[in-house]
Each structure stands twice: as structure tokens, then as C-alpha cells.
Amino acid sequence: MKLMSGSDIYSAVEHIKTIVKQLTGDKADNFSNKAAGTLTNSTLEARKNIYDKAAGKESHLSIRNTKQKGWT
């Protein structure tokens, strides 16, 4: 049985765009701003790892941490 990587399964694409919105705390649910930030960062890191593994060895990771015009 051959172990397949993400690059063996998925078709090639030129780029992948993803948006992770910053979470905020909620005092009513006892969810602090620090916990919200930690969850947001963990989500972003998990997505980057998943995409990087699926893209294969010929990929190039580029990250832009800025809001574009019109984003709220």
C-alpha cells in the first residue's frame, strides 16, 4: 500500500487565499480576549500547516497580514 501525500491527491493550483477573522472575548461566556487571540492564532497555524502539506514540495508560502480595502 502506497502512502499518499496531499500533493498526490490534490490538483495543482496557482494560489490559495484564506481569511481568518480575529475572535474577541465574551465576558458572558467567560471567554477572555487572550483566549480568543490564542484560538485565532492556533487556527491560522493549523490552516497554514494543512495547506503546506497539501501543496507539496514545489510550493511557496506567502503570508499577508493586512486588511484590504473594504474589509470589516
Descriptive overview:
The protein has 2 helices and no strands. It has 72 residues and is mostly helical. It has a domain of 42 residues. It is elongated. The mean pLDDT is 78.
Quick synopsis:
It contains two helices and no strands. With 72 residues, the protein is mostly helical. The protein has a domain at 14-55.
**Category by helix and strand content:** mainly alpha
Q: Choose one word for the global shape.
A: elongated
Average pLDDT, all residues: 78
Could you list the spans in which at least 5 consecutive residues all have pLDDT below 50?
A: none
Helical fraction: 25-40%
* Major sheet characteristics: none
The Cα radius of gyration reads 16 Å
- How far is the first residue's CA from the last residue's CA? 48 Å
Write the SSE topology.
Elements: H1 6-9, H2 33-55
Q: What characteristics describe this protein?
A:
0% strand; 72 residues; mainly alpha
